[in-house]
Each structure stands twice: as structure tokens, then as C-alpha cells.
Amino acid sequence: RKEVEQDPGPFNVPEGATVAFNCTYSNSASQSFFWYRQDCRKEPKLLMSVYSSGNEDGRFTAQLNRASQYISLLIRDSKLSDSATYLCVVSVMGGGNKLTFGTGTQLKVEL
Amino acid sequence: DGGITQSPKYLFRKEGQNVTLSCEQNLNHDAMYWYRQDPGQGLRLIYYSQIVNDFQKGDIAEGYSVSREKKESFPLTVTSAQKNPTAFYLCAISLRDRPYEQYFGPGTRLTVT
Asked: Cβ separation of A44 and B104 shorter than 8 Å?
């Protein structure tokens, strides 16, 4: 079983749609959680951290469910510029600053 | 202009040759990391360094070597012992007190034939 699992997609959605991605992690000792965005053939960029209470940044909402060991990302009012691959990332405290990356979910927002 | 620079963007080498990838930062961050990305796989950690003159192996260090002689620089050498060196190599940095918020350079695409 992979440490971090994501549906690879692609998710093709019309502009303005709401789309949600889920991610599951296997290590119950995971402490920190993040969503990164990666454009085609570019470096990943930190999109947002995920807190236990859930957090929102504009059109983006991240949720964490520790009991079920999954993380979600909700994007409202999708824009063409949201088209990218979204990487779910977790870390384990004391794991030597190690981040474990999912393989990513590809989103394509269409006119 | 500040940030993280990696050079070159594209690199081509013949099998059996060692090659060194550059990573430089002027943001005064303590920690630096090297990852590789392959199609269909998540990023995997090769090496990381939290302070000058010290570094640790990541999950896939075999066939690679690094040095950290200056805070600003963390070069990665891909040796001929690395069996599958063709990949997208990414350097990242983080602050010592926020090690899990990592920021990436633009990457180097290495092709070995």
C-alpha cells in the first residue's frame, strides 16, 4: 500500500464548477499535511497547509480527518488557471524533515 | 532577484559519466533538499542538509552524492552507479523552524542515454 494515495484523474470540469479531491495516508503518526500545486513540467508550489480544524484560502478549502486518515481539497468556482496537478503531502514528526508526496491528481478546467 | 536557482534546466549525458546539478539559494534558509520525480511516482527524497557541512541520506541516496560547504549551495552529483538517472531533479529549501513547508527550485531535467 502506498503511503499517500490519490486518484490520478484527470478530473475534467467546466469553468465555474466545484471540484473536490481526496487523499488517504497510511501512517497514523503523520503530523503535518499540505496541498501542493504543480503545473506541467514545473516545480511544485505550496498551495496550503491543512489544519485539524479545516482551513480556507479564498476559493480553496482543505479538510483533515485524522480518524479516517484522509485529507480533502475543495475548489469552488473553478478557473481555467486552476488546471494543474494537485499533490497531497504528509510528514511524520521526527522523520528527519521528510515529506511524503502523493502522485497527484490532475485537474483540467474547460470552457 | 531572490530565490532558488537550479542549473541547467536541461542536461544530457552519456551513460557512465558523473554529472553535478547545481542548487543555489539566497534566502538564507538553513535546510536544503534534493528530490527526484519520475512519471507516475511521487517525489522521492535523495538527500537533505539542515546545516552547513552536514547532510543525511533520504530514501533513495544510492548512486548520488552531495556536499554542503556553503549555506547557499547544495550541489548533487549523479554518479555512474545510479542505475536509472533519467529524471526531473528538484531542489527545495525550508526554514529550520518550519521544516515541512518546503519551497522548490525550477528543477533540472536530466536525460542519460
From this structure: yes
